[in-house]
Amino acid sequence: MHRNPDDLPSALLETQRRQLSEVTSVSCFDAWRDSLVATSGRSGDPPGGALGVLIARLADRNEGAREEAASYFAGWHRLLATTMRRLQDRGRLHHDADPEALATGLVAGVQGGYLRARASGSPHHLLVAIEMALAHIRSFADQV
């Protein structure tokens, strides 16, 4: 089934909202990571799926498309920061952790890992980049 590329970013954000609402500990990010890597190149979608559409829009010379993509990534960042704060509130993440910084690092890992994965043709780079960001997040969970 081929999906409309214009619908993919909204669907990605909704999927992220649902998945991140289920994160109750730092270890829950493993399932989130695995799902993101698995869906980054799902057949029937444009190359790279929703992530590919977003990243292509960032590179687009059309300012409106770039702003739209930036808005989606900002929304994703907010979802991740909210998740980090929730983990802090539940005592699952050390109070010294900076939810905004952790969310920024994780989004950057997704973006950079995705670009490397597309360039190499292997999702392994996306997995490694996300895992590096998660390792940093785990360091704050280990202190609890």
CATH topology: Tetracycline Repressor, domain 2
Report the strand count. 0
CATH architecture: Orthogonal Bundle
Count of individual helical segments: 6
Main beta sheet strand tally, sense and closure: none
* Rg for CA atoms: 15 Å
Shape: globular
Number of domains: 1
Alpha carbon gap, first and last residue: 45 Å
Keywords:
144 residues; mainly alpha; Tetracycline Repressor, domain 2; 6 helices; 72% helix; 0% strand
At a glance:
The protein has 144 residues and is mainly α. The protein has helices at 8-21, 29-39, 49-59, 63-89, 99-120, 124-141.
Question: What's the layout of helices and strands?
Answer:
Elements: H1 8-21, H2 29-39, H3 49-59, H4 63-89, H5 99-120, H6 124-141
Description:
The protein is built from 6 helices and no strands. With 144 residues, the protein is an all-alpha fold. It has a single domain, classed as Tetracycline Repressor, domain 2 (Orthogonal Bundle). The longest helix has 27 residues. The protein is globular, with a radius of gyration of 15 Å. It starts with 7 loop residues before the first helix and ends with a helix.
